[in-house]
Each structure stands twice: as C-alpha cells, then as structure tokens.
C-alpha cells in the first residue's frame, strides 16, 4: 500500500498520468467531432494555423517579458526564440495557401512547401528547447557579459538560419530543393515518411528526456514545456501513420497541436497567477512589517499618527475622536527583577489585551517602551473613559497563574483620555493632551483613568 502511495506521489508518474488523461480527452473529442462532421472544410487547416500562430506569438512575448524582468534567466531567450521562429515559419505555411480566403479556389495549395515549413519549425523548436534546458542547468553559474551576449547572438543566428533555409527550400531557390509531399497526389514522399518524420520524433524524444532529467519538473513552467514536447511526439506519430496531406491524421495533428498549445498558455497563465499571488503576499507581509511594532504586532508610531490625522480631518461634535494614552506602572521594576525577556512577555500580554478590547475600526499602537495609545473613532469622552476603565480593571485582575506565566506578578496601568470634537486640532496636540492626563493619573496614585479637562 505504501509503495502504491509513493508511486502516486511521484511527480514523474503524476505528470505522465496527467498527460495520458489530457491526450485521451483530446483524442476522444476529435473522434466525436469526426462523427458529427463527416468531412473537414479546406479552411480548417489554415484557420487552425492562424490560431496556433497567435498562441506561439503570445508565448514568445511572455518569455521575452520574463527574461526582461530577470536577465539571469538566459534560457528564456532560447524559448522565446523558439516560439518566435515557429510563428514566422507558420507565416510561411500560410503562404502555401495563397487563395485560402477565396471560396472558389481551395485547390490552390502547395502542400510540399507547407510540409517544409512544418519540418524546419519542429527542427528549430526541438533544438532550441534542448538548448534552453542546458542553459537552465548552468543558470547558477556566473556568466561574463561577453558570454551572455554571445549566447543570445548565437540563438538569434540559428533562428534566422532556420527561417531563411525554410524559405529557400520552399520553392524560392533553384539550388536548394526538397520533395516531402507530391502536390499532384497529396501523398507523403518516402523522404518524409521513412526519414525526416522519424528523425523529428527522435529529436523531440531527446528534448523530452533532457527536460525531465535537467528540470525534474520542478514547477509548472517546466511541466508545460515537457508536456509540449510530448504533444509534438504524439502529433508527429499521428502523421507517421497518415498517408497523404489531406488525410484525417493531418487535420487531427494540427487540431491536437493547437489545443495542446492552448493548454500550455493556460498553464503559463496559472503560473503568472501564482507568481502574482506570492508577490502580493510578500508585499502585504512587507507592508505590515513596516507599520507594525515587531515585538507586540501593534501599529507603530508613524502609522498611528497617519491614521489619527485622517480621522481628525472629519472630526466634529457629532463625530468625536478619542485618544487614550496608557503607561504600565513600575515597568522598570519588572525588567530589573525578572529580566528583559519576561518584560517582553508582559508587553505582548498587554498588547493582546488592548487589541481584544477595541473594535476593528479602532487603532491600537505602541509608541514607546511601555507606552501604548488607542484611537477610538466616533467615540465621545464618556464612552472612551468607560473603555479605558474596562481595560484597566481587566489588566489588574490578572496574576501569574491566570496569565499562564506571562505576567510574573499583578500589573497595573495608568491611562489618560482626550477627545477631539474639531478638525482644527492636530494629532500631536491630541496625544500631548492625553499624555498630560496620563501623567496626572501617575501623580495621583497610578492604576487609574484621568480624562483631560
């Protein structure tokens, strides 16, 4: 049983199992489509080619932007070039259907040129994806600027050579010619069926094994690339068993490739979503760290004053803003007798008590060593005094046992209250007035609440 669970959890087994499911769904969908549509329109192949061209353009732009954001990911240049070259070669494929938009000239198709562009496209993509995997393997090795630029230039030169060679072989050169399809009978030539197709399948197998061995399917990005390689092996296998260019296998291969590429785009979009989510969480954590006191997780002084200034901007008699400044009584004795670690526990305990004692729209902050401040929105002086009194009584009721050892002995707190009923007063004046009331509480015996008069 454990052995079975280990196999299921293995990422490689899960990957290939998932690929079988997706390929099975695509194959089943195609067979259902064949039942519903007995014959395919000649417009189908160029239409699917246009969709595939747009998809590859999207992936090329996506990879280029990722490289632009992180220049250390040199392997992204190879992938971007692979899909850019593929897009250009598919443009050549469309040129093999010069009158495909003319509803009365479907037969004007150069299938040999289309197959030439198809062959060079697979050769280009397989080689560059293998090269991208090799670059990924050495991603942590520092490369000199000259080496970096040289690799990029080599990738661009290879891509340009493949595109130019495909263009020359497709009837644009009297010297470079190759016959892969008989345009009269639409039959695949022996050179394609028994040599080139097999070589391309082997090349994509090499790409598949290289990707799995080097990337180990670490994330969805490489899972998508590996899945694409497997899809190309399947599409080439379909053509291997097809007899001619208008055979159903030709349409199935292109429909399958288009659907598989769309799945790759969805995987990349999901990867982008995960990156955005992680980035957003990190931003939120960073922002919270910038406005929170690291020990108590209450708001810090700067955030408190910003929030208070915003509330005071709309303060009036019917919408008062109250400020409560509090200070722990004889806190220095806690540090001297029990140590600073115990003192930190006391501060954390008081901070939690303050947060539990106010509403979500109120602000609790630590503005000094053992000095805390509360901002109570839309709260008059009497209500603020009641809140402060409730906090004072609650804190004084705890001892060492009832606080689970966070308080080494009973702790008291002195609190001063000030209420602003006008927007003309500043945040500093509010805190200063509440601070004066708090010191009055200290001077008149501690452990009490004083309202500023």
Automatic annotation (TrEMBL):
InterPro entries: Diguanylate_Cyclase, GGDEF_dom, MASE4. Keywords: GTP-binding, Membrane, Nucleotide-binding, Transmembrane, Transmembrane helix. The keyword Transmembrane applies. This is diguanylate cyclase. GO terms for biological process: cell adhesion involved in single-species biofilm formation; negative regulation of bacterial-type flagellum-dependent cell motility. It comes from Enterobacter soli. GO terms for molecular function: diguanylate cyclase activity; GTP binding. Pathway: Purine metabolism; 3',5'-cyclic di-GMP biosynthesis.
